[in-house]
């Protein structure tokens, strides 16, 4: 049984690292560390010592240039003190069968880096972006979601509907072309969609869909299913009392269920 070692990466304005690390531990991670991006540069921590990486939510570089844009350039062009490229570190991590979860700002980073959706196996090529919500404001509330049962995603396996909080200003998915949107559907890379709770169907309608994302896209996976990025915050629903109606006896599946599924996948390797 593989030991699950989780690395949560922070720095430059990320602010959900502690909650994400807490949720990973709740979900069963055997060891969970928080590292600054600069720790990776200094080689105090190395991605390849871990098999689960979390890119948490926050405001990388204050959302200047667009959410996670500058951070994507740092990952692409910076090297560690002994000259290893951080992009190569990510490539080595993926080659070693590790799993990656990007939450909100972390999802924005993964799409800007081209790690998601990597349709057609084209990793590190930017195929989609996440931009300003149609409402032109920050949206902060809970949303209903459905998981795609046909998606290869290891995090959503066996999960159906979820109810999770969102809090973002740039969550609308913009595809490079119509062709990319078709590829996402054909390869089942759309792992999570916003739904209208009345019909259970994916929706583009506000406010059920908080940002206007086409096809109700809330989360994407890659062709291997080992990377998940999503706009909602599963780590923020780590206990029944986080549910807005828990005092009225209402709770739903915890957000940490996504992390649990990812961890179960690693244990089976
Ligand atoms: N909660 C978050 O991670 C927010 C992400 C980003 N800063 C946005 O507003 O879109």
UniProtKB/TrEMBL annotation:
Query: Which biological process terms from the Gene Ontology are attached to this UniProt entry?
Result: 'de novo' IMP biosynthetic process
Positions of transmembrane segments: none
Please name one Pfam family that this protein belongs to.
GATase_5
Query: Which keywords describe this protein according to UniProt?
Result: ATP-binding, Cytoplasm, Glutamine amidotransferase, Hydrolase, Ligase, Nucleotide-binding, Purine biosynthesis
**Gene3D superfamilies given in the database record:** 3.40.50.880
Q: Name one GO cellular component term.
A: cytoplasm
SMART domains reported in the protein's UniProt record: GATase_5
Tell whether Cytoplasm is among the UniProt keywords. Answer: yes
Query: What GO MF terms are annotated?
Result: ATP binding; hydrolase activity; phosphoribosylformylglycinamidine synthase activity
Q: PANTHER family under this entry? A: PHOSPHORIBOSYLFORMYLGLYCINAMIDINE SYNTHASE
Name of this protein: Phosphoribosylformylglycinamidine synthase
Question: Upper lineage ranks?
Answer: Bacteria, Pseudomonadati, Thermodesulfobacteriota, Desulfovibrionia, Desulfovibrionales
């Amino acid at each position: 049984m593989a030991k699950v070692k989780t690395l949560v990466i922070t720095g430059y304005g990320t602010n959900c690292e502690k909650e994400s690390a807490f949720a990973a531990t709740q979900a069963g991670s055997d060891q969970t560390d928080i590292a600054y991006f600069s720790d990776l540069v200094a080689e105090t921590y190395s991605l390849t010592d871990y098999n689960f990486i979390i890119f948490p939510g926050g405001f990388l570089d204050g959302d200047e240039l667009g959410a996670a844009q500058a951070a994507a350039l740092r990952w692409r062009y910076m090297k560690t003190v002994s000259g290893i490229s951080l992009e190569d570190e990510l490539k080595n991590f993926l080659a070693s069968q590790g799993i990656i979860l990007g939450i909100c700002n972390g999802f924005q980073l993964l799409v800007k880096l081209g790690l998601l959706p990597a349709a057609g196996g084209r990793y590190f090529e930017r195929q989609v972006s996440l931009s300003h919500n149609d409402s032109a404001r920050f949206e902060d509330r809970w949303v209903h979601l459905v998981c795609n049962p046909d998606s290869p995603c290891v995090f959503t396996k066996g999960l159906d509907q979820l109810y999770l909080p969102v809090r973002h200003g740039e969550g609308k998915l913009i595809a490079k072309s119509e062709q990319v949107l078709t590829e996402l559907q054909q390869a089942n890379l759309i792992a999570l969609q916003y739904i209208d709770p009345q019909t259970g169907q994916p929706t583009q309608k506000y406010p059920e869909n908080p940002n206007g994302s086409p096809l109700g896209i809330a989360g994407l996976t890659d062709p291997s299913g080992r990377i998940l990025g999503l706009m909602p915050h599963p780590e923020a629903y780590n206990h029944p009392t986080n549910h807005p109606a828990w005092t009225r006896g209402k709770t739903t599946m915890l957000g940490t269920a996504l992390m649990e599924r990812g961890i179960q996948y690693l244990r089976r390797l």
